[in-house]
Each structure stands twice: as structure tokens, then as C-alpha cells.
Amino acid sequence: QVQLVESGGGLVQPGGSLRLSCAASRIPFSIYNMDWYRQTPGKERELVASITRGYSTNYANSVKGRFTISRDNAKNTVYLQMNSLKPEDTAVYYCNANVMDDAFRQRTDHWGQGTRVTVSS
Q1: What is the DSSP string of 71-93?
Q2: CA 117, CA 97: separation in Å to the nearest integer?
Q3: Three-state SS for 87?
Q4: Nearest one of 67, 65, 12 to 38, comparing CA atoms
Q5: In whole angstroms, what is the distance from residue 4 CA to residue 21 CA?
Q6: pLDDT digit of tens for each residue in the chain (121 aa)?
Q7: Sign of the CA dihedral 99, 100, 104, 110?
Q8: Which of 11, 17, 60, 88 has its CA 20 to 30 A from that of 104?
Q9: In sequence order, what are the beta bridge partners of 69?
């Protein structure tokens, strides 16, 4: 069974840093695109950062310059380095693994359980 397990969340003061990890198992990790999403109550889930199987990255404008997504295919793990954290970064962060079958236009998504990040003084 596919499994994505996030870790690294917690309470941090504004301006601080956290490093989130998402360990994947039972998927061909290297061919999957990996994303980090976040969600707070009453808001839509927001795509924070993405990294393709070709290591191309994209970031939401709200985190650009502060967050860095990376992946280690040998460890089947994607990371989100979060620096200069702000209270508005407070959310549950979810790991997502996805792959698109272009021929049949089918996208497969797998989700982790989420890890909570609270930025507060």
C-alpha cells in the first residue's frame, strides 16, 4: 500500500525555521512529481511548492525566497526547508505525490496525513 509520512512540524517563533520531511514507500518515487500543500480551517488547500521528477521547482508567491523544496530519490524522501517563517505560514502541511498519464489524461495522487506547523510568538 502506498504510504506518505510527513514529519518535522511543530511550534516555531516568527523568523524561525523548520524542515519538513515526507518519506514515501511503495511507489516508484523517482518518476513522481512531489508537492507540498498547506491548509487552514476555512481555506482551500494551497499548493506551496512542487518539484518534478526532473527536479524542476515552483513555489507559491507567498513563500518564494523563503522555502526550498528538494528531493532525495535514494531515500524516497521530499523535503521542505522553511525559513523566515511568518504567522501566516501556520497550517497543516501535506505531502503529495502525483504522476500524469498523458496518453489517457489520468492523474494519480497520493497524500500524506499532514504535519502541523504553528508559527507564533
Answers
A1: EEGGGTEEEEEE-S--GGG-EEE
A2: 20
A3: helix
A4: 67
A5: 10
A6: 899 999 999 999 999 999 999 999 999 999 999 999 999 999 999 999 999 999 999 999 999 999 999 999 999 999 999 999 999 999 999 999 999 988 888 999 999 999 999 999 9
A7: positive
A8: 60
A9: 80
